[in-house]
Amino acid sequence: MVKEKTELDAMASGAEELRIDGFDHVEFYVGNALQAAYYYHKGFGFDVVGYRGPETGVRDTASYVLKQNNVTLVLTSALHPGHPIAEHVHRHGDGVKCIGMKVQDARKTYETAISRGAKGVGNPVEYKGEDGAYVSASVQTYGDTIHTFVERKDYTGAFAPDYKGKKKSAGNIGLTYIDHIVGNVEAQRMESWVDFYKKVFGFYIYQYFDAKDISTQYSALVSKVMANKSGTIKLPINEPAPGVGKSQIQEYLDYYLAPGVQHIAIGTKDIIATVAQLRDRGIDFLTVPHSYYEALPERVGKIDEDIDELERHGILVDRESEGYLLQIFTKTVEDRPTLFFEIIQRKGAQGFGKGNFKALFEAVEREQAARGNL
Ligand code: FE2
Q1: Which of 124, 150, 168 is the last residue of a domain?
Q2: Of 23, 26, 191, 243, most Cβ neighbours within 10 A?
Q3: Domain limits at 302?
Q4: CA 294 to ligand 1 center in whole angstroms
């Protein structure tokens, strides 16, 4: 069952919350950043706004920065075999390496995190130039994933030092902010990552879902959502639970070969318009049976949207006490069944679409079965 947010969890951890102003960016390590950038530019409507590579004096990697409103993605490839990024891609396939967080003081945030037991993977690096000051530092989280603290108060350069600005417009399809980023971890490991976010970040358990909430006859998972008090950071952590078939979380772990980011939820103010654009641009979504929409009016009551239109686009709806939300999930966006995206529009509801878990799970299982992995 869903537990309402409670301050007790934060107080129990005893850790003062690290001041995080929000998600800064998400960096992917990929096999071919040039082509991945084309996918997010053409498919998801991101502008290409920055580049770093041999032409900017960086000899061994190439990175593209993509931006749409408050969502920034960075795609990075290695240019030589044996480079750690090449090894990361060899092991995991394309995937998320870094969940970047905006901070006021990267050095202090890093030092506090380290003093509370985080493992440092990038000492604070400070850049000072004509375009202002930029500081970043990184700590390890689940699997090979890291958090980078980014401080760029008066920094006016392109994304980060060594990057040069680029301008390739895609037309803005209304993706406005990162709502939450979900991690999959191994069975029996969720609690230790919950503790990590409590102790190191001072985050609290915003909501949790047990196996009864998120199961079908085949597979199950459990999930706890870690968040900061301002709600600008929400990081659900999933672990597989036993079922008749293979949990979708276990399928992820079998292909990513480590814990890692399962999905990135991006907010929009008009999900119908945004999803219509995404579909036109060739993005594939999970399918929802007609029976879901037959049952919808009774389940969610009165909503502003036309149900036939929602069905045409495959958009899901869930009602909570404070309002409702609309959401939809892409198919996995890598060859390995690992990462996918969620598009979400909140109309008062602050949850994660619990009423849709069953329909969503069944849709995921149809995909798993098609891959021979159920
Ligand atoms: Fe989600």
Answers
A1: 168
A2: 23
A3: 175-371
A4: 24
